[in-house]
Amino acid sequence: MASNEPRKAGRVDGEVAARQAVGLFGLSLLSCILSIVSFSASAASNTRPVLGGLLLGLAAILAIAAGVHCAHLLRAHPDAQLAWALARRPARDDDTSTTSSTALRLSWPSAMLLAVAYGVVFQVFVRLVFSPRNSHFQGRIEELDFGDKCPDLDEGEVTGGRNRAFDPEFNSFGHWLWGAAAIFTWVRVRRVELQVAAEYLSVLVIVYPGYNLIKRAARSDVFSRSSFGQNSCEWAFGVLYGSAVGALLQATTQTREVVATWHGQFAQVVSAGLLWCVSVALSVLMINTWDDACNNGDPIRRDPVRRLAAVLLVAPPIAAAAFSAYATRRWHQRPRDTTFGADGKVHPSADPSIVPPGRSVSIV
To answer: Is beta strand 145-148 parallel, antiparallel or unpaired with respect to 162-164?
Structure first.
């Protein structure tokens, strides 16, 4: 019976990996469909096909990641099919599956940081979705145009211009690059020094949204009509692209279990908490200024979907807090022989078939 345990562990890992491959293919297909819709809207309105191009590139990366991940899955489980893995059929005695880890994995601190970052991305996209020309923001979704922008009071602007993301300028690429630091949350290397460096570099993902929120809240006349949406949209696509490329790199390298250090992961947990505070402040500022006019003008007609937007803006920080609580609970339930040692490293169980839940989590 004991000899079957590694085989069963490998079979469970294959089931998780199969679900991940299907999920990546599904996300790729969804991005492709949204890209086609966006291209069609851009052609009809004769506007820049920015959103369509970004979604198409994201779909391509996700499709490649899914293909690579699926290839490694079938190599590790030569008698398996995706349907078999998803059906959770019991392992047979003649099963030739290996016990090597094929599922994509994130450390719990990395998962917490990404969960909060995805919440901020969702909030930015909520503002974009509610900015079409039939609303009082007067924007265009397919062009990543958030509508009319209020002037920057500290810079003496009279008119703010258009609040449009991904204009051909260096700042747009810089904002995107800050978000692309999310790639380091997926890095899994066996050298301790490189793993620690990746954990610290992943913290960079929180820098720009915090700076952008403080700057726009202090300088802009109306926060909901400031350039926060435009700049954060560029950061948000950086997060999405960084995550997609990170998943592709991890699927390619097949490095899953690593030795982590407490200080790198502690920095990620603190950063997740700070970014969560940014998410809460963002929802409050956006809701309070949703119907305000620039230059202390007369209030704009009340947006009939304001309450729906408020619910969608408040939901991400609540969901991120719930996930963080769940992650913390799983960490305290880790095997007691998997602890941080005096040398600052995580010491795993001697059994190679055991994947300590405190060290990593399979993203299904």
So the answer is: antiparallel
Residue/partner pairs of 214-222 with CB below 8 Å, 24 or more apart: 217/281, 217/285, 218/154, 219/152, 219/153, 219/154, 219/155, 220/150, 220/152, 220/153, 221/150, 221/151, 221/153, 221/294, 221/295, 221/296, 222/150, 222/289, 222/292, 222/293, 222/294
Rounded distance between C-alpha atoms, residue 18 and residue 120, angstroms: 29
Give the Cα separation of 187 and 256 in Å (integer): 9
Residue whose token pair is 């400031």: 226
Q: Which of 27-31, 224-228, 290-294 has the highest mean pLDDT?
A: 27-31
Tens digit of pLDDT for each residue in 44-53?
Answer: 888 889 999 9
Rounded Cα distance, 98 and 7, in Å: 7
Q: How many other CB atoms sit within 10 Å of the CB of residue 193?
A: 9
- Dihedrals phi, psi of 341, to nearest 5 degrees: -85, 180
Helices 262-288 and 207-219, packing angle to 10 deg: 30
Dist. CA 258–CA 347, nearest whole Å: 10
Bridge partners of residue 347, in order along the sequence: 339
* Residue 105 near residue 360 (C-beta atoms within 8 A): yes
What are the pLDDT digits (tens) for 139-171?
889 889 888 887 766 555 555 677 888 988 888
Per-residue pLDDT at 351 exceeds 50: no
If pLDDT is split at 50, 70 and 90, which confidence band does 262 have? confident
300-309 contacts: CB < 8 A, separation 24 or more?
300/136, 301/136, 303/130, 303/135, 303/136, 305/130, 305/135, 309/126, 309/127, 309/130
Reference 310, options 291, 295, 325; nearest CA is: 291
Q: How far apart are CA 161 and CA 287, in angstroms?
A: 22
User: Is the CB of residue 116 less than 8 Å from the CB of residue 272?
Assistant: yes
pLDDT of residue 84: 47
3-state secondary structure of 146: strand
pTM above 0.85, yes or no: no
Please state the rounded mean pLDDT for residues 170-182.
Answer: 93
Q: Are 16 and 82 in contact (CB under 8 A)?
A: no
Q: How large a percentage of the chain has pLDDT more than 70?
A: 71
